[in-house]
Amino acid sequence: MKNNGAQAKIDVVCGMDLAPYADSVHIRYQEKVFYFCGEYCAARFTQSPEQFIGEPLIRLDTVWKVFRLGATAVEVLKGFSLNIWRGDFVAIIGASGSGKSTALNMIGLLDRPTSGTITFANNDISLLKDQERAQLRSQTFGFVFQQYNLIPWLSAHENVALPMMFAQKNINQERLNASFREIGLENRMAHRPLELSGGEQQRIAVLRALANDPDIILADEPTGNLDSTTGNKILEMLANLNKTHNKTLVVVTHDADIAAKADQVVAIKDGRLVRNHKTYKYVE
C-alpha cells in the first residue's frame, strides 16, 4: 500500500525520515500504521514485526556533521537518521565520500555531531563528556579497521590485551590463549605485526575488538586490504559472532558479498540515507 500524504513519517526499520517524500509504503499491524522507505524495509518488518517495536539499540536522529577547513565548511552528514536494532548485522554501503565512515564514527562515539542527537539504549549520548564517552566505548564497542591499527612494537598477544588494560580489567590468560587457538594463531602470539601477514593481522584486530566482550562490533572496510579467500575468513568470523553470540554488527563496506550476508543493508549518498537500500546502485 502507498501513503500519498505529505505528513512526516519515520521508517521504523532503518530510521529514515520520510518527510521529503510524497509517497511511502505503509503496513497496518496491531491497529497501528507503520511507514517504510521502500519494499525492502517493509519486508523486514513483515518478517519479524516484534523486533522493530520499541526503541532501537542505537538511533541517529537528524545528525549533521560539518568539518571546517579554514573558511570552508564541508558538510559530510546532512540530517542523517539511522536505526540500529539489537542483534542485527547491518551493512552500510555507498560511494567513496558519501559519509559512510563518518556515520560509523558517530555510532561508535569516535566523533561528535555538529547537530542532531544520538541515543544508545534510549539514552542521549550526544553530549557526554570525553571521559564518559571513552568509558562507554571501552565497555560497549569493539572496532575493526581496514588498516588494522595494531601497535607495531607490541606483540600480537599484547595488542589483543591492550583494551583490557585500558579498561583496567584483569586479563584472563587462559581465555586469551584459547582465543588465539580458535583462530589458528596460537604459534604467532609473540610475533609483532610486521612479522604477520595481512590476514593474520586482521584476525588479531578482530580478537582485539572482542577483548572486552563488547555488545556491538563496528567494522570499517574490514576486508578491503585482503585477498578474497582471506577476506571470506574474516567475514565468517564476524558473521559467526553476530549469529552465534548475538553481537550487533555494523560494517561499512564496498563488498557485495558482505552486503549479501547482512540482515539489513542501508545506503548513503551525499550524507543522507537513500530509499530502496538493497537495490541502490552506486558508482565509484
Number of strands: 13
Annotated CATH topology of the largest domain: Rossmann fold
Number of domains: 2
Beta-strand portion reads 25-35%
So what's the overall shape?
Answer: globular
Integer-rounded radius of gyration: 20 Å
* CATH homolog superfamily of the largest domain: P-loop containing nucleotide triphosphate hydrolases
Largest sheet strand order: 9-10-11-6-12-13
CATH class of the largest domain: Alpha Beta
Helical content stands at 25-40%
Which structural class should the secondary elements be placed in?
A: alpha/beta
Number of helices: 8
How far is it from the N-terminal to the C-terminal residue, by CA? Answer: 34 Å
CATH architecture of the largest domain: 3-Layer(aba) Sandwich
Low-confidence stretches: 1-7
Taking the sheet with the most strands, its summary is: 6 strands, mixed
The overall average pLDDT, rounded, is 87
What pattern of helices and strands is seen along the backbone? EEEHEEEHEEHEHHHEHEHEE
Question: Any overview of this molecule?
Answer:
There is one protein chain. The protein has 284 residues and is α/β, with parallel strands linked by helices. It folds into two domains: 1-54, no CATH class; 86-113 and 127-279, P-loop containing nucleotide triphosphate hydrolases (Rossmann fold). Helices cover 30% and strands 26% of the residues. The chain has helices at 39-47, 100-107, 130-140, 156-166, 173-182, 198-210, 228-245, 256-261, and strands spanning 2-3, 24-29, 32-36, 58-69, 72-84, 89-93, 115-120, 123-124, 141-145, 216-220, 248-252, 264-269, 272-273. The strands form three sheets. It has a six-stranded mixed beta sheet with strand order 9-10-11-6-12-13, sandwiched between helices. A hairpin with a 2-residue loop joins strand 7 and strand 8 (123-124). Helix 4 runs parallel beside helix 6. The two termini are 34 Å apart. Mean pLDDT is 87; it is low at 1-7.
